[in-house]
């Protein structure tokens, strides 16, 4: 099936559009959650949405998406407020408050779901799909609801950009300026609940936490400014959502929600590996360079200290002795010093090869050693 034929399918159009909306709102709002060190917030509210899904079904008496999403928003926001109260009015840490809230609300959701399954209501079929999502069931009317929620969330972010930015980075300073920090934090938390509501149909309660966190984490690896991070997180979320949806359509049998999460998570893995200055490869390269620089400085200063100790600026030090002193082969470092004109070797007076070579610092080497020791002394001070 060609791409044109694929995208002309009504169901696939709905799934792709829904995945794009989910990625957009998750990337934007997840950035603030990650920066506020509340990565588990999405997990808590996604699990807390389950009782809202059940209550929405019970009240409406049918599987009406509007009622279900409204119920999910209500219980998700309630869970967020409970978490804030627990952490502000007790000695509980944020992670403990999140864990308690998640467990209690999810347990309530499972109880309500079990109760609904015991009801004689033919509309209950497929309600448990909200646990893992059922993207193929997305209708055009569902997209309008998801799009409206996304638009509200993005408009709030745009209107309160400066306030959200300050609260995320320096809430104490925001308080000193007279900003209603508590209300802004509540609003941010409720907005994350909006993102969770958008994703329930696509990826479900269980996987929604990853959708909130993953795009923001990947974007954080590549950006230094909040503006860049939010924009990049939105792009990663949209791209990952669309790619996962199309991959599911091509595979014919693989669930859409998990493929969306895997697509976004693969971007996180790549970002954490190769992102400039923050990726694992860059960190490994920095460590290798640091070890080489340290070994270089150690050998250089050892030659200098031996010369000072013997009161002889051209005191020859045997390579074998240097190997023994440092517990490693110093030939590569000595060759580097030689290439830089900081040291030169002299043959053994007995003409012995290899380790019997003796090394002498040049005037430039003495000056470099003094500079290194002076810099190390300032660091220790």
Automatic annotation (TrEMBL):
The UniProt transmembrane annotation reads 12-35, 40-59, 65-86, 98-116, 143-161, 173-194, 200-218, 230-247, 259-285
- Keywords carried by this UniProt record: Cell membrane, Ion transport, Iron, Iron transport, Membrane, Transmembrane, Transmembrane helix, Transport
Keyword Membrane assigned to the entry: answer is: yes
Record's keyword annotation contains Iron: yes
Location relative to the cell? Cell membrane
Q: Which GO terms describe its biological process?
A: cellular response to iron ion; iron ion transport; response to zinc ion; transmembrane transport
Entries under InterPro entries matching the protein: ABC_BtuC-like, ABC_TroCD
* Name of the protein this chain belongs to: ABC transporter
Originating organism: Halomonas aestuarii
